[in-house]
Amino acid sequence: MARFRRWLRWLLALFVAFALIGAIAAGALYYVVSSKLPDVQSLRDVELQEPMYVYDSEGKLMAVFGETRRYPIQMKDVPERLKQAFLATEDARFYQHDGVDYKGVGRAIWLLATTDAKRVPGGSTITQQVARQFFLSSEYSYTRKLAEILLARKIESELSKDEIFELYLNKSFFGNRAYGIGAAAEYYYGKKLNELDLDEMASLAGIPKFPSSGNPISNPERARQRRDNYVLQRMAELHFISQAEADAAKAVPMHAAPHEPPVEVYAPYVAEMVRQEMIAKYGGDVLNKGYHVTTTINGTWQEAANIAVRDGLMLYDHRHGWHGVEQHFDVAADADAATLARQIAGIPAQAGLLPAVVSATHADGGISVVLADRTELTLPAAASRWTNRTPAKLATRGDLIRVRAGSKEGEWLIDQLPRGQAALVSLDAESGALRALVGGFSFAGNKFNRATQARRQPGSSFKPFIYAASFDKGFNPASIVLDAPVVFRDRRGKTWQPQNDGGGFRGPMRLREALVQSRNLVSVRLLDSIGVDYARKYISEFGFQEAELPPNLSMSLGTASVTPLSVARGYAVFANGGSRVDTWVIDEVKDRDGTVIFKENPAMACRGCGGLSGPGAAPVAQVVDGFNFGAEAAPAPAPKPGSATPDASQPPKPVNPDARTAPRAIDERTAYQLVSMMRDVVQRGTGTAAKVLGREDVGGKTGSTNDHRDAWFSGFGGPFATTVWVGRDDFRSLGYREYGGKAALPIWIDYMRVALKDAPVARNDPPSGMVQATLNGATEWVKNEDLDRMQEFDFEQQDQSADDAAFDIF
């Protein structure tokens, strides 16, 4: 008996010792773990990753950028049934326990002790999941589990149940880059939380357990089983819903489908510009901070630009006929629609042109095709009328072609991706704000932004800049320059003999007529007269880099390599009276709370601000007879009906202390003269097609380069300066007679027709410091100081130079 008592004492002592050691170890572990627990209060100020939203000037969505889809919600906006679906699935006793479900923990310990499993269900509560999601790693260890339990208790002591539940619903991953219940409801069903049906709520509640492999898009069958057999049945068992409601929801077929946020304004090239600018301004993580970016883009005008570029390029392409199928697939004779559709999986639609595989040809000339979504279409013989051939003669089974919806309901037509590309840039000439931009036929097909990245030769559309430089050297629209052959020789003995487009010479010409008719030889002589170095420095004031301007006389023919955006900016100088405005697209940036963190304050054009390069005076009609051509007085223009006149009785408008004035690029009087001349280009020159707009304020200049590699039209009307370029990325010719007036101008007209609707007609009144005079048989407004130093070439000397003069052009 005594021996038994001794053993009993030893066992009791060992038990106490082990208990003491265990308590000390547990206390030490608790101290180590608890000392490293984060501050739970940080959860109140947590910044969840949200995408960046980009809008047009009227708040219409243009794009969403970011690694995650997340639309944070508040608990008050969560329907009661949706709460119950998650409680039934994840933590039925959430509102009763203090953060830890000890029954679940005990069950996990028992399973670990009685089985060989390394990982078992641990009874993690919603609070524990919040602790793990925000503060802990996914490592599976006892230390991490203890930290999770302790942190859950700490969270419960400092946050309310609804605050914890809200964090859980906003943080949980639902697959397909959707984080949070708001994004999940939007992505899978295209609905707000209060619009969800019971079956949809149950489906969403079942996703977080298997977000990638068990969501209703990647694995609808697995998602259905979890919805029916677990979520809905568990809700019924907990009396959240009746069994009849559960059975009715189970009977609903799985119908989840991808739903992206509805883009209201399609401007992918602009959106990408904004993305890059935001990263440059705020850093790489800007796409996940929930910023809301408002741009200067007008959605209506942007849509008009998209349509104008698409239709213009397709019209150009149709002029040059069918150029063959895109690709051919070797398909088995018994291949069904699903097999054919897989051949074009991943091939994007471009500007409404859908990829399709020909499945059969018919004796009547029609064909059958299969689209990427397995839709089967039969196209009649008339579906390719523009090619002058039937579809059956264009393609055979297995060919990849493009189809588009016709103007009639249910009509489908055959088309093709155009070989040409185009860019359109439209600016507010007064501020430089970008109003519309298209960088190519299709962003899906090629993300290269030709409006901002393509450097092409502008051809004759560059001539107005040469003319402007000459007008500050004493020339004016009535000055006469010889249109006749000329040969230049460089220092190495090589010769250059520029030609007019189409050949021919017209002798002495006034500069206004030379620009209207786009005479190359006049531009060359003009540049030679004022000097290349002077012209390069002068033209750089329009916003071009001097280094990109050729240091020789070829610059007069538009051989510089410039972007459409820079050309549009240059034309804005003419349109706004001579100010150099900066181009910009981001108007305002707000953070996730709606606080404005950036607001653009652009430098505005200012007419009359430092616009004179010589003595100024009010416009006066005078008679000038400096060249023995006779003189005739001309009346000053009368005010137009409805035009505003100064009212001395009205108080002056308040001055904005933050207003910024754009620097002056050229004399305001020079800008006036060039605007007047380019309006004539539209009225009776190479841009006469634009007369269809029926506006007197429309002006511009066509441009074409050698072998028709580039076609341009740049101009202005109303408040806009707009440039259109058409060409091929491989620099090949656009084709026979594809001039700027034929390939680019129709696009410009189609866009401006919409942009100018309801826009007031822009005035072009002569600024102070000008006189109206009759020179060389024409009445022109000229600068006051030009009356004393009118320049005119000596015709005899020019004839001699055309024969044997040699000038340095390099």
Automatic annotation (TrEMBL):
Residues 632-666 are annotated as: Disordered. Gene3D superfamilies: Biosynthetic peptidoglycan transglycosylase-like, DD-peptidase/beta-lactamase superfamily. It holds the Pfam family Transgly. It is found in: Cell inner membrane. Pathway: Cell wall biogenesis; peptidoglycan biosynthesis. It is a single-pass type II membrane protein. Residues 59-235 form the Glycosyl transferase family domain. Residues 632-646 have a biased composition (Low complexity). InterPro entries: Beta-lactam/transpept-like, Glyco_trans_51, Glycosyltr_51/Transpeptidase, Lysozyme-like_dom_sf, PBP_transglycosylase, PCB_OB, PCN-bd_Tpept. Residues 322-418 form the Penicillin-binding protein OB-like domain. The keyword 4Fe-4S does not apply. Cell wall formation. Synthesis of cross-linked peptidoglycan from the lipid intermediates. The enzyme has a penicillin-insensitive transglycosylase N-terminal domain (formation of linear glycan strands) and a penicillin-sensitive transpeptidase C-terminal domain (cross-linking of the peptide subunits). In the C-terminal section; belongs to the transpeptidase family. NCBIfam families: PBP_1a_fam. This is Penicillin-binding protein 1A. It comes from Stenotrophomonas capsici.
